User: Fold this.
Amino acid sequence: MNQKVAGNGILKENKKNWIEISVFAALVAIASAVTFWLFYRQCVESMLGTGLYHSDMKAYILEMQGLDSGYSFPYPVLFKLAAAIHLVPASFTGGAELAMALATMLLNSGAMIALKVMLDKHVGANLQEAMPGKPWLPGILTGTAAVSLFFVSMVYPPTGIYLPGIKYKYLGGFTPNPFHNATYMAARPFAILAFFKYGELLPVYEQPNAVREHKRDYILFAIYLLLATMTKPSFTIVLVGAAGILMLWRMFRSRFRNFVPTVWLGVCFIPTFMDLLYQFRGVFVPQEGQEGGIGFTFGHVWAQYCGNLPLAGHRIPNPGTSAELQGTAQGQHLPFLLAGVCDELPYGILPV
Assistant:
């Protein structure tokens, strides 16, 4: 009798997994096909210098081929992946465009998978408790959310209708979901994993023997953050700044009683700091014939794409940010974490 019950449980679990995996695989396949076609058109038309699909792909393709793009890209992950793919279609006409489109699609779709895994890990059990009679539904909900969040901000007004000061309809408010910039999207899977892993470490890093008990999490966080930085440093700058402020505030609040645990968590940032120094070395060490240094201006680059900065920045402050701050103040790290994901994902993951 017990064997029969156990067998029925296994069958139900397999059925649940089969339904969940099938639905999520279909969603990712559809999203991958749509985005691949977009990226490929971007690649082709950027090389031609004309068309409807504005992007930075031409510079990325030249960089991938080792040619002078006119820009410096000291973050190699996307270009190395595209170069590896290019080994196959290198002899074909348009092989470089195909390789870059595939690399961008793979990393962007990989971010959907990473988010699905993280949502299952953090909210899957709660959803299962809330839906006891439908074990297959929570997985479908997290999968649908994981894919939908990458498109939810890509809503534009009808053709011919533009909001005041918004110059480019395709780019949004610079930019809610930067499909025109492949390096932003390439960083998404690593940024998602680093963001969640840091959120997992926040409640435990001050505990005794946290480094020994959660050593794997420390290492994974350091690796994810480094990979995100080596793909695009935009997310890293935001996370490191926010993490630094949060950790210092907690250290001052505890009157330095958590100094050693804070240092151990800070060690995870060292590889990323070293890579950032390499990436931004040109700012402090001018190249021959070039000027160095840092210039400050308010909204100058932004204004090239949007003449209405208050409208484009309408989401500051917003409900997600408020939830993050409230959750952090109350020590509820999981709500803070999920509020940040839901708030920032549609805008490029995370605030890039």
User: Anything to note?
Assistant: The radius of gyration is 22 Å. Residues 66 and 179 are 24 Å apart (CA to CA). Residues 1-9, 171-176, 314-352 have pLDDT under 50 and may be disordered. The longest helix spans residues 2-48.
